[in-house]
Automatic annotation (TrEMBL):
PANTHER family: ZN(II)2CYS6 TRANSCRIPTION FACTOR (EUROFUNG), ZN(II)2CYS6 TRANSCRIPTION FACTOR (EUROFUNG)-RELATED. Residues 79-106 form a coiled coil. Residues 40-70 form the Zn(2)-C6 fungal-type domain. The keyword Membrane does not apply. GO terms for molecular function: DNA-binding transcription factor activity, RNA polymerase II-specific; zinc ion binding. Keywords: Coiled coil, Nucleus. Transmembrane segments: none annotated. This is Zn(2)-C6 fungal-type domain-containing protein. Residues 1-25 are annotated as: Disordered. Gene3D superfamilies: Zn(2)-C6 fungal-type DNA-binding domain. InterPro entries: Notoamide_regulator, Zn2-C6_fun-type_DNA-bd_sf, Zn2Cys6_DnaBD.
Length: 469
């Protein structure tokens, strides 16, 4: 072979000597064998991810922050189904025992009523529930003290404000309950029953709404007035429509109880304080902050007038509150001479009245005038402090009232402008929401009337109003 042909190959290096020390073998990593998981959680099954099967949470779900659920075994599912069936049977046994024991003490007509309901397709639970919570079974115990008007006389007999029935037995629910327990019979329900609105016709084919059509034209009689002690405000001096303070206080209580829109722009504490202390014939001083006026009082009474004694035409329900509305319109021309908070509040209520019983043009006119009067007040510039160290009691109450009213007007205007697809006129106030402060807010004080609420005149049992929330 030629020399040039030999140089094409790469020269080989000499090998290691065979007598040298042997090299140490490289370390081998011990790879842990994966253990077989018998049951994986539902989340890992759906994602087809590895699951270690640990309970109550596997590592994959724990690291991802997900809820970890395992499908129950067939044995557990069967046991749970048997437990549910057992509980249902025990409940039905108790219901049937209660019904059977109560039938032993019922009058024949009451037992016949239960039988009629069962034949109509009612189940035992609904039948017993209706009788427990104020159905015909417990009519012999009503009217209850919780549904009766309060009286300052200790010997007064309670009456039912809904039915107006004053012929009640002197035995109350407690004594009647003692008679049942003392006779060895078990009564179905030992707690005082609650009034419940049910259809007078319980047949399944009867439509419930048939019995309660045109309820807006049903009005309460004078017998539903509940005479609350220490709640008699001199409202008659603020209006010329009526001098009956009992009727006027009744209408005012209806407003505070059921009107959750209008009282959003009125502070009840300051309104009632000025109503009692101010003279309606005395004109307000410049820059004086008043929370009550004759125009505002008449507008408020017009909004929530449901008694036939205040109808302009006794047979026409569409004229309800019209006498107060006309008086308010007359007073508006006298009071609408300078920026006034009471005038702005009254215009808001009058727009509500016209929207319900008047015409749309008048309602929009009142609302536009309300916006103008409110903007002229510049409530954000009216400085009041809630600090007890630098402000008196009256100023602190005014500060909370202005905060409540300012945000109320903002929400009021937003609702209407949003419905009409118009630009907002009243901007969001700069005042803080002081009524949410648990330390200083009057709504957190149990002495404040707005802390409590009761469904007047159905009941006078108070409960927390949740107005601050």
């Amino acid at each position: 072979m030629s020399e040039g042909h030999t140089n094409r190959y790469r020269p080989l290096l000499s090998g290691l000597m065979r007598g040298g020390p042997p090299e140490a073998p490289s370390p081998r990593l011990a790879i842990r064998k994966r253990s077989a998981v018998k049951r994986a959680c539902e989340g890992c099954r759906q994602r087809k991810a590895k699951c270690d099967g640990k309970q109550p949470r596997c590592y994959t779900c724990f690291a991802a922050g997900r809820e970890c659920r395992y499908a129950a075994s067939p044995d557990k599912l069967q046991a749970a189904a048997m437990q549910r069936k057992n509980d249902l049977l025990e409940k039905r046994i108790v219901e049937h025992e209660n019904l059977y024991k109560s039938l032993q003490t019922l009058q024949p007509e009451e037992a016949q009523e239960i039988l009629r309901r069962i034949r109509a397709g009612k189940d035992i639970e609904s039948v017993t529930e209706n009788f427990q919570e104020g159905g015909q079974l417990l009519q012999l115990t009503s009217p209850m003290a919780s549904h009766a008007p309060l009286s300052t006389s200790s010997g007064a007999i309670p009456s039912n404000p809904v039915t107006g029935n004053t012929e009640t037995s002197s035995l109350g629910f407690v004594s009647l309950q003692a008679d049942y327990l003392g006779s060895g019979q078990r009564f179905i329900h030992c707690d005082p029953p609650r009034a419940r609105l049910t259809s007078r016709y319980e047949h399944p084919e009867y439509v419930f709404e048939k019995s309660w059509r045109n309820t807006q034209h049903r009005y309460a009689e004078n017998s539903v007035f509940v005479d609350l002690p220490r709640y008699t405000l001199p409202i008659s001096k603020w209006t010329t429509v009526s001098n009956d303070d009992t009727l006027l206080n009744h209408l005012l209580l209806l407003f505070w109880t059921w009107d959750t829109i209008g009282n959003r722009v009125i502070d009840r504490t300051m309104f009632e304080e000025d109503l009692k202390t101010l003279n309606p014939n005395t004109p307000s001083q410049p820059n004086e902050l008043r929370f009550c006026s004759r125009f505002l009082v008449n507008a408020l009474l017009a909004v929530y007038t449901t008694n036939q004694a205040t109808f302009l035409l006794s047979n026409d329900p569409n004229t309800r509150g019209q006498a107060f509305a006309r008086e308010a319109a007359r007073l508006l021309s006298l009071e609408n001479t300078s920026p006034s908070l009471a005038v702005a509040q009254g215009l808001a209520l009058m727009s509500t009245y016209e929207a319900a019983l008047g015409n749309e043009e008048t309602e929009l006119s009142y609302h536009s005038r309300m916006q103008a009067r409110y903007l002229a007040l510049r409530l954000d510039n009216v400085r009041r402090s809630t600090d007890a160290a630098i402000a008196g009691a009256r100023q602190r109450r005014e500060a909370h009232a202005l905060s409540w009213i300012s945000w109320g007007f903002y929400v009021w205007d937003w609702k209407l402008m949003h419905g009409l697809c118009r630009r907002l006129i009243i901007k969001k106030p700069n005042r803080s929401k002081t009524w949410q402060d648990e330390a200083t807010s009057p709504l957190c004080s149990k002495d404040n009337p707005d802390y409590w609420w009761f469904p007047y005149p159905v009941s006078v049992v108070p409960q927390k109003s949740m107005k601050r929330e």
